[in-house]
Structure formats: structure tokens, C-alpha cells
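Retry 2 of 3 after timeout on previous attempt. Resubmitting C-alpha cells to design endpoint.
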């Protein structure tokens, strides 16, 4: 007959260490999340969830559509508002380009690189 204390010691040696189980579980959860994130990024799902950039044709169309619905614009008003805002965006782009060129004329080459990096960071927000 086998001694009960020997069975208890054998069972304890074969049981899982709680710290090891916790670490393995956390690693598995992390790796699963990373894999799911990689799949989502690869399928470009995040691009479809974000609205298009306003300065793109798709962004402008979406903006004008939303504006028309929220303001209940008539077709004639929609055309006029779109014309006014298109003129404004063109003016804004011209002013920004001119201002950027004027600032860059004052800066050194190193300062220009930093300035352009700052502008890119601002646009990314």
C-alpha cells in the first residue's frame, strides 16, 4: 500500500506554480492582443473608422453632406456654401504656403528641418 503523505508530496510537485500560471496567462493575453492589433492594422480597418481628412475630396464631400443635413440647406444654398468654403480653403492654403516660405527664409537649414518637423507633428494631430 502506498503512503498518503507520499501521494500528497507527489501531487504538490506536479501542481502548477501560481506565479508561472499568472505570467503565462498575461503573456498569452498580451500576444493575443498584439496579434489581433496586427491583423486589424493589416486590414486597414482603422483607416475606415476615421473620417477622411478635410482637405481631401472625400473629406470635403463628407463635410458638405453633413453641413447640408445639419443646416437643412436647400440645393441652391448647398452650392453657394460649397463655393464660399472652397474659396476660403484655397485662400487659407495660399496664406499658409506663403507664410511658411517667409518663415523658412529667416531660418537656418537646421532650423528649417526642425520647423518642418514641428509643422508635420501639428498636422498629424
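Retry 2 succeeded. Sequence:
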Amino acid at each position: 500500500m502506498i503512503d498518503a503523505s507520499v501521494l500528497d508530496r507527489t501531487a504538490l510537485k506536479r501542481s502548477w506554480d501560481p506565479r508561472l500560471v499568472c505570467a503565462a496567462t498575461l503573456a498569452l493575453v498580451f500576444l493575443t492582443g498584439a496579434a489581433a492589433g496586427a491583423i486589424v492594422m493589416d486590414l486597414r480597418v482603422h483607416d475606415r473608422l476615421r473620417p477622411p481628412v478635410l482637405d481631401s475630396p472625400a473629406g470635403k464631400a463628407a463635410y458638405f453632406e453633413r453641413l447640408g443635413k445639419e443646416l437643412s440647406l436647400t440645393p441652391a444654398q448647398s452650392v453657394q456654401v460649397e463655393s464660399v468654403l472652397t474659396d476660403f480653403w484655397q485662400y487659407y492654403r495660399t496664406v499658409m504656403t506663403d507664410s511658411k516660405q517667409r518663415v523658412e527664409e529667416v531660418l537656418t537649414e537646421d532650423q528649417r528641418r526642425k520647423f518642418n518637423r514641428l509643422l508635420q507633428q501639428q498636422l498629424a494631430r
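Attempt log closed. The chain has a mean pLDDT of 84.
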